[in-house]
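Quick one, C-alpha cells below:
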C-alpha cells in the first residue's frame, strides 16, 4: 500500500476484544469482524484474527518501534526464502497493521523428535537458509536509513543483577552463576561476528511449516518488531526452548551455508539470561520456574 504522508497514530487504549474490534471498525476496512479470535499472549503485541483470514496486530506500548517494523517489512518483501507479513493496511486513528494470515503447520515437538535424521535436516536447513538470507537482506545504507539499532548485550544482565534478591532464594546461586557466565561470554569481541541484521525473535512460535507433513520446511515467519544488528549467534538464543537436536542441527547448517562461526554455548546463555530478566521485570517468579523446566528438558536432549 502507499504510505506517503502516513503518521503513526496512538496505541489502542485497552487490549480487550471489544476495544480492538471497535478500533478496526472505525477505520472502515473490508475485514469481517464477526467473531474474531483474540490472541493476547504476545509480549509486545496483541492480535485479532478475523474469520476471513486477516491478522490485525496492535502494539501494546507507545515505545515499540511500530513504524520501523512497517518499513522493514516493506523492504523485505520478496527478499527472503519464507513468507513474511505483507502489510495491506495500517490504522489511521489507532496503531495497528493488518496482513493476510501466513498459512502453514505449527511446529510439532513430538513429531520432530520422532522423525528420522533426514527429515530433521530438511527442517533445520530451511531455518538456516532463512537466517542466512535475513542476515544479509538489508544493505548498510538501508540499516542506517531505517535506524535499526545494535543489540545491547548488557541490558538483560543488568536487570537480573539488580533484581537478583527478588528471585526465590533457592535459585539465586544458579542465576548468579548465569550472570557471571554471560558477562564473560558476551564481553566485546568474544562472540564471533560479523555484525548482521538479526530477526531477533527467532523461535518456532513465530513460524509456520509445510502443511501435510509431520516435519516440514519453514514456509512463513512473522514478528519483525525486534529486528536489530548483532552477531549471528544471538539469533539462535530462542532455539534454546526447542529440542537440543534442532538447535545443534541449525547451528551446524548455518555455519556450513554461510561460513560464519556461531558460539552455541553463548547463544544458550543469552537466551537463559533473557528468560530470567523477563521473570524479574514481570515480578513473576513462576516464569523462572517454567524456564528452569525448559532448560532441564533442553539439557537432557528433549
Amino acid at each position: 500500500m502507499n504510505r506517503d504522508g502516513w503518521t503513526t497514530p496512538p496505541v489502542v487504549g485497552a487490549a480487550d476484544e471489544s476495544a480492538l474490534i471497535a478500533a478496526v471498525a472505525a477505520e472502515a476496512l473490508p475485514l469481517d469482524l464477526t467473531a474474531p479470535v483474540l490472541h493476547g499472549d504476545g509480549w509486545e503485541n496483541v492480535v485479532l484474527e478475523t474469520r476471513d483470514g486477516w491478522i490485525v496486530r496492535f502494539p501494546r506500548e507507545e515505545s515499540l518501534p511500530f513504524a520501523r517494523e512497517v518499513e522493514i517489512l516493506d523492504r523485505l518483501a520478496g527478499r527472503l526464502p519464507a513468507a513474511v507479513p505483507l502489510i495491506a493496511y495500517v490504522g489511521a486513528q489507532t496503531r495497528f497493521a493488518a496482513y493476510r494470515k501466513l498459512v502453514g503447520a505449527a511446529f510439532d515437538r513430538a513429531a520432530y523428535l520422532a522423525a528420522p535424521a533426514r527429515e530433521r535436516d530438511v527442517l533445520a536447513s530451511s531455518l538456516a537458509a532463512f537466517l542466512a538470507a535475513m542476515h544479509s537482506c538489508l544493505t548498510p545504507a538501508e540499516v542506517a536509513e531505517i535506524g535499526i539499532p545494535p543489540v545491547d548485550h548488557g541490558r538483560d544482565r543488568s536487570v537480573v543483577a539488580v533484581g537478583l534478591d527478588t528471585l526465590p532464594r533457592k535459585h539465586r546461586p544458579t542465576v548468579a552463576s548465569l550472570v557471571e557466565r554471560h558477562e564473560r561470554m558476551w564481553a566485546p569481541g568474544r562472540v564471533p561476528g560479523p555484525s548482521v541484521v538479526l530477526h531477533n525473535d527467532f523461535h518456532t512460535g513465530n513460524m509456520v511449516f509445510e502443511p501435510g507433513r509431520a516435519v516440514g520446511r519453514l514456509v512463513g515467519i512473522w514478528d519483525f518488531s525486534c529486528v536489530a544488528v548483532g552477531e549471528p549467534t544471538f539469533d539462535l538464543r530462542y532455539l534454546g526452548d526447542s529440542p537440543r537436536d534442532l538447535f545443534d542441527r541449525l547451528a551446524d547448517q548455518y555455519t556450513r551455508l554461510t561460513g560464519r562461526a556461531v558460539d552455541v554455548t553463548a547463544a544458550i546463555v543469552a537466551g537463559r539470561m533473557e528468560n530470567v530478566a523477563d521473570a524479574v521485570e514481570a515480578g513473576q517468579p513462576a516464569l523462572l520456574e517454567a524456564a528452569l523446566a525448559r532448560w532441564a528438558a533442553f539439557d537432557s536432549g528433549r
